[in-house]
Amino acid sequence: MAIKTPQGDIVGLPRGTSDFIPKDSIAIEEILEVATEVFRRYGFSPIITPAIENTATLSAKAYGEESTKEMYLLDGGQEALRFDLTVPLARYMAMNKDTPFPFKRYQIGNVWRKDEPQRMRSREFLQADLDIVGVSDQRADAECVAAISEIMWKLGIEDFSIFVNSRGLLNSVLDSYKVSKDSQAEVIRVIDKMHKTSVNDTISRLVQLGLAQTDAENMVNFITWGSTNEEKLGKLEINAPAAKAEASKLRDFLSLLSNYDIKGSVNVDFSLARGLDYYTGMIFEFSVVTAGRRSPSLAGGGRYDGLIGMYSKSPTPAVGMSIGITRVLEMLRERVGSEVGRKSYPQVFIASIGKENTAYSIGIASRLRASGIYVDLNVAEKGISKQLEYSNSIGVKYVVIVGNRERESKKVNLKDMSSGSEEMLDIDLLIQRLKGS
User: Which residue segments constitute the domains of the chain, with CATH numbers given?
Assistant: First the structure.
């Protein structure tokens, strides 16, 4: 909601952006803690790149015309806000040619797209990426998928589905249905959005792109047919002989992935394309399917063996995936509502009665903080009732009340805000009690 300043100016958020209150911000930090821990355990190391890149870097041919239109250009147009974290990685690799391979990198940061805002789609959003550069072996692909799978599971999204396809396989299918090279990029974008629209609408759009009605119908029926992965791959080999080699690669990948403890279902999806033009091989997407409807992707990515070479002039294979952090938060919100995230970090609030007890309160806070306990300390001229009201509003479980009696006895009064019970404790026992809770 926009507000007016005293000067009459309208103050509000730009479209497609959000403020995050402490509760949501804490939830985001906790999501990132889970992701970061898994990234590190899988052997990935962090890098940091600027939010601003040269427009020439971001508008490279492999990036695709659609994404170029969605860039936020800065004053003069020579620079722009980064659209994702993958192209900056490609530029980074070109500028750091002595990096040893394989290079396993993760990065967390905001990206910006001038897209039409809608459910789970913002113009500014937070991503967590992991990539393996310098390796063409499918074992690298499997490592990325396994890491993201573990993150989803640890976050409590246990019913996720992993959709898998190959851009090479998809191109072979298009060749089998005689889709011209000039039309393939647009056809792929239409196919990629099949699960968001009706079959008839998809067929109509394909016909508009130059496919014969019968070819469009047959291709859509082929892409959507089959229930098991083996059924889909078997029909592919019969109906699109040119795709046999790609189908074999996909089978090998599924076999490789079966060696991991993947919790979600793994599904071959011939409609999956991922919109960006730089993907060259295996592509992946994580979503939740409810009553036959697929959620917006929570994570996705794939192999992009040609992108880094555009910047470094040296062929460099790479594969990577990205988690949409704010999308994950929205998914968790939809499932458990207000239970997502705590209101604040402190375990305890120290309420002091009278200025003469300020020094004693600070001393207690210092000892608790040194013991690793998160502490909020009264810093305002408020009576004890207002301090308790404040403690309750930020969701603190315990309040340490300090008055003359507590200071003189070198103890504290610990109040449990849930039960209302109180007890006098010395500082050492207070520390034990709080750590135990």
Answer: 10-338 (3.30.930.10), 348-436 (3.40.50.800)
